[in-house]
Amino acid sequence: MADEEDIILSELDDEELVLQMHDDLYDGLKDEIEEGVRILLDRGWTPYDVLTKALVAGMTIVGADFRDGILFVPEVLLAANAMKAGMAILKPLLAETGAPKVGKMVIGTVKGDIHDIGKNLVGMMMEGAGFEVVDIGINNPVENYIAALEREQADILGMSALLTTTMPYMKVVIDTMKEKGMREDYIVLVGGAPLNEEFGKAIGADAYCRDAAVAVQTAKDYMSRKHNKLAAG
Ligand code: B12
Predict the structure, then answer these.
(1) How far does the centroid of ligand 1 lie from the alpha carbon of residue 179, in Å?
(2) What pLDDT shows up at residue 125?
(3) Same-domain check for residues 57 and 27
(4) pLDDT tens per residue across span 124-156
(5) 162, 190, 195, best to mutate for ligand 1 pocket (most atoms within 8 Å of CB)
């Protein structure tokens, strides 16, 4: 039987390498993930494919085993760190489109919630699509969102929540925006694994986005409508 340590990533074909990366992500092996990402890029993979097929797909397996009680917080944290290391290599490449800025987004995870991988991914993909992104991090009370929107003169607010206990806080933010008479000045996009379309509607968001690709498309659609509206005066 082959010893794990004997595996030389660069000798694997693409398919084997991607499967090995899923395993390495599962085991929280940061160095191996970084190496795998570099190899795939060298072989001509697009940063987006590396992100979705090697990293996000691997994290989905981690998520399933966490849910089923096979993995626990410390292991998931290691996996998350490995994922972030891979994402750090891809980030500049995804952002490197040189496209004119199409709009500005403030994005953050809500109060009580420290999950940030999905939010970071959305931020990266938005930057890649030509948006300017101001990331206000995790565990944000409503004041942080309001202050950032006003300070940055943003077009879009993005809120992330991964817990059923923290997602209702999005409504607190939207209600506060309404009270301050500023709700209509922004496009509000929400996301995170436990959310769905109905929830997005119920709390008064403009849209719920299932993943980062949908977030980019939705943001673009709203920005072009906003421009058309302004042009129509
Ligand atoms: C990694 C992880 C952790 C890591 C987080 C590390 C980090 N830096 O983020 C750690 C170990 C710290 C952690 C802690 C906890 N976690 Co946790 N975690 C996960 C896990 C396995 C993966 C999440 C992830 O990163 N996914 C990968 C990314 C790419 O996907 P995503 O986040 O869904 O994001 C995509 C979309 O949702 C969308 N999106 C996300 N945000 C946004 C925002 C906008 C604006 C838009 C448009 C779109 C969008 O686009 C993203 C990219 O495509 C999930 C399982 C799961 N199925 O989600 C559990 C999970 C979310 N965690 C869970 C739990 C219970 C916890 C803890 C309470 C565990 C504990 N007992 O302590 C704590 C809570 C800590 C806290 N207060 O926040 C539960 C939540 C259950 C529930 N229904 O509420 C889950 C679902 C696991 C489970 N099934 O039990 N966790």
Answers:
(1) 30
(2) 83
(3) yes
(4) 888 877 889 999 999 999 999 999 999 999 999
(5) 162
